[in-house]
Recover the amino acids of this structure.
């Protein structure tokens, strides 16, 4: 895995060197980075997370009271249904994504670990930090995630979403009851926080952490797309990463 | 009080209760515990043959609201529970004996019914300063508790105090009031939380233990499943208004008069495990939500330290400010949003500057 990571940037940079004059003589070099399951999971998860954020906020802070008989309305019911449904979808596609990491390419595994033991990794993280602090003129190019992005994806996506899925299912198990599979699998959360009010609080905080992640994620994707001489946003649609100067 | 060798049945027959009434009582008890049709005869059989279970009822740091609740039990009547079903050997609040005479009963029960008596604890022991904040019979309560727990069959932790700590354990907890399960670790403990617990839940638990000679099935947190496995919210009669999206927005508004859901008024029903919305209080008359006030979650761990009873979200104090998760989250998201915007602006300026520089170089 280490070797694969190290060789990532090598050949492509060589290809780009031919393009250094600024003319598009040799055509844009491109690499197939994001395999179809990765892209599908990305967009399904993105859509689920947005639904979950909106409905989750509305569960915590409900809409103004609706008029009429209780039997004629089901506003909270629909909102909660959408939240639970999106949560289940997210859980399934998150699991699919984990499974794909075992069979997919090197880039499909990047968001699930941080190579903490590699000195070079941390040096490149430092370089990325300097790049974002406007201290470096030129960004380095990577086929997959840059080291800083890898850290952000591992924490901001993998860890936070896993936390939200676990606490979410634990809260869901309160409705399905202590004999349900949800409670058998996730009931241990209430051993950590005996009062489910605390689990609610952490679930809210997790949502805001994800809001922050989404903001930074979208901003950096757009910024890198423009600034770092490689395609980012279109790559998540086509799977191809194009390099340009 | 005293001798505990007779059975429940012999005691109530002596009190002039007919066998027919006895069976009625058994059926009613089986029903209120939610047991099957065969359970009534098993209860009858147990009460006819088993010697009455001796119970020692002790009081630590508490307010006696558990006792107050207990003596109002309607099904079964507390009179039946205390005078017939169990042998309440010691309860310093309601017993006739006092002083050395009372303390002697403790020693006697401990020696005579080693490993067979139930220790019911109301309140909890403060551990700070060697337990000096609660002196009972000239000794710290914690010593008395440990002594009696040693030979008990099981311990009932009555109420939020014994189960979780309650208000005397509120931050910063100067007396270090500690729930029973943190002090006694080698005995089966059943938690019956609530401030106070519902009377019928208390007598129901006592009836179960005396009938079957064992603790009822407990959940992960040590509470009897039959009373604490569902939230107030799950069985609340106002639940249809919650699902419809109909809420009381402020006290005394039209929605409050119509009896809409109290969620927005900080009702803790969705996070409180108790039987109030099914068993209700005072013989099934009412419960807080029915009276128009949200649930405060008094049977939940730490309910006294979670900020206002009228807010849905817990205040978080770790950051040195009293804000709830949404307030903290919005500030964080706002700050990051501003940072992103600033970073984008600097990026744009930088990019323009470098472009101009490059242009200068090439020309």
């Amino acid at each position: 895995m280490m070797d694969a990571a190290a060789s990532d940037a090598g050949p492509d940079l060589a290809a780009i060197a031919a393009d250094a004059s600024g003319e598009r003589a040799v055509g844009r070099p491109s690499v197939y980075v994001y395999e179809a399951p990765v892209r599908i999971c990305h967009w399904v998860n993105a859509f689920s997370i947005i639904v979950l954020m909106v409905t989750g906020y509305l569960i915590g802070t409900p809409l103004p009271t609706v008029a009429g008989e209780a039997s004629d309305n089901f506003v909270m019911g629909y909102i909660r249904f959408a939240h639970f449904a999106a949560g289940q979808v997210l859980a399934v596609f998150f699991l699919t994504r984990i499974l794909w990491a075992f069979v997919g390419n090197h880039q499909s595994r990047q968001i699930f670990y941080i190579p903490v033991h590699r000195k070079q990794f941390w040096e490149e993280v430092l370089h990325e930090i300097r790049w974002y602090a406007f201290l470096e003129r030129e960004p380095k190019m990577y086929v997959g995630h840059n080291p800083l992005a890898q850290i952000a994806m591992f924490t901001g996506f993998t860890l936070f979403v896993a936390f939200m899925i676990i606490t979410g299912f634990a809260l869901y198990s309160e409705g399905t009851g202590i004999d349900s599979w949800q409670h058998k699998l996730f009931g241990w959360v209430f051993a950590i926080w005996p009062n489910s009010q605390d689990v609610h609080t952490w679930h809210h905080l997790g949502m805001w952490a994800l809001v922050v992640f989404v903001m930074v994620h979208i901003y950096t994707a757009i910024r890198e797309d423009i600034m770092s001489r490689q395609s980012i946003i279109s790559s998540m649609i086509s799977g191809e990463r194009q390099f340009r100067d | 009080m005293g001798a505990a060798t007779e059975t429940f049945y012999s005691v109530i027959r002596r009190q002039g209760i007919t066998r027919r009434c006895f069976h009625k009582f058994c059926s009613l008890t089986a029903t209120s515990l939610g047991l099957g049709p065969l359970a009534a005869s098993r209860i009858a059989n147990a009460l006819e043959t088993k010697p009455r279970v001796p119970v020692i009822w002790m009081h630590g740091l508490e307010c006696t609201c558990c006792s107050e609740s207990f003596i109002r039990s309607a099904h079964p009547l507390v009179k039946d529970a205390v005078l017939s079903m169990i042998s309440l050997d010691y309860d310093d609040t309601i017993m006739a004996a006092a002083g050395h005479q009372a303390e002697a009963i403790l020693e006697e029960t401990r020696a005579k019914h080693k490993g067979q008596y139930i220790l019911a604890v109301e309140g909890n022991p403060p551990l700070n300063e060697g337990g000096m904040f609660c002196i009972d019979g000239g000794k710290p309560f914690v010593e008395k508790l440990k002594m009696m727990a040693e030979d008990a069959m099981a311990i009932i932790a009555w109420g939020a105090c014994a189960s979780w700590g309650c208000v005397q354990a509120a931050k910063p907890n100067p007396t270090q009031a500690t729930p029973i399960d943190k002090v006694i670790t080698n005995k089966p403990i059943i938690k019956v939380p609530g401030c106070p617990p519902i009377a019928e839940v208390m007598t129901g638990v006592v009836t179960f233990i005396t009938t079957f000679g064992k603790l009822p099935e407990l959940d992960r947190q040590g509470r009897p499943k039959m009373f604490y496995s569902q939230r107030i919210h799950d069985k609340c009669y106002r639940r249809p208004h919650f699902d419809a999206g109909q809420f009381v927005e402020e006290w005394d508004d039209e929605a409050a008069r119509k009896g809409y859901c109290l969620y927005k008024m900080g009702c803790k029903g969705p996070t409180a495990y108790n039987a109030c919305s099914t068993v209700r209080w005072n013989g099934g008359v009412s419960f807080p939500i029915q009276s128009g006030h949200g649930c405060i979650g008094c049977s939940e761990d730490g309910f006294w330290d979670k900020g206002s009873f009228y807010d849905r979200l817990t205040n978080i104090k770790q950051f040195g400010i009293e804000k709830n998760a949404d307030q903290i989250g919005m500030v964080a998201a706002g700050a990051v949003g501003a940072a992103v915007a600033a970073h984008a602006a600097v990026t744009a300026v930088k990019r323009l500057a470098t472009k101009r520089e490059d242009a200068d170089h090439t020309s």
User: Anything to note?
Assistant: The beta strands of chain B are 53-59, 86-91, 118-122, 135-136, 139-140, 154-158, 189-192, 315-316, 323-324. The CA atoms of residues 155 and 269 of chain B lie 28 Å apart. Chain B has a mean pLDDT of 88. The first strand of chain B starts at residue 53 and ends at 59.
